[in-house]
Amino acid sequence: MTVRAYVGLGSNLANPLQQLAAAVTALATLPQSQLVAQSPFYRSAPVGPQDQPDFINGAVALETRLPALALLDQLQAIEQSQGRQRIEHWGPRTLDLDLLLYGKETITCDRLRVPHPELVNRDFVLQPLLDLDPALTLPDGRALADLRPLCPDNRLQRLDPQPATPPQAD
User: Given CA atoms 23, 119, 114, 103 in this order, what sign does their dihedral have?
Assistant: First the structure.
């Protein structure tokens, strides 16, 4: 059975735009999965310690046949391949991939909580999800569009699309 899963992406170290672009490329090659949409990227203030660079965030939609925990394993493998180190909660990172939504399922286990528990409190998560699907709802039926205005302001700034190739010099 195929499930629509939404994955949040974030980075604030080691060229964050390049980190996210590499992550999207890796997500597009996941087994038993197809990347179906990518949101724009956004700059936002960090949550937690403020003595770190701003984050770049976005989201993707996947059609996947992977079970949720197998998908989580794949996401964590991509993080590790891009140098992710889990040192400080809400601290700086090369790459953070969060399984935000997995179909209409609610999952609670030691390794995974879906919907992501902070999803409703993060404008830098809700806005990219709304870019992917303006009618998206949580498993409990709440519309993300109704939750977005209630979020704390993280100084969200939509970034211009990144060119696929560098401009040629004249």
Answer: negative
pLDDT in tens, 57-96: 999 999 999 999 999 999 999 998 887 565 655 557 789 9
Q: Is 73 a catalytic residue?
A: no
Would the pTM count as exceeding 0.70?
yes
If you average pLDDT over every residue of the chain, what do you get? 89
- The catalytic position among 43, 93, 122, 123 is 93
Instruction: Report d(CA 37, CA 60) in Å as an integer.
Output: 6
* CA 125 – CA 13 distance, rounded (Å): 18
Bin 22: left if φ > 0, else alpha if -120 < ψ < 50, else beta: alpha
19 contacts 82 by C-beta, under 8 angstroms: yes
Q: What is the pLDDT of residue 108?
A: 96
Whether residue 123 lies in the annotated active site: no
CA dihedral sign of residues 41, 65, 68, 22? negative
Active-site choice (96, 110, 113, 148): 96
Q: How far is CA 102 from CA 2, 29, 84, 128, 131, in A?
A: 10, 18, 23, 16, 17
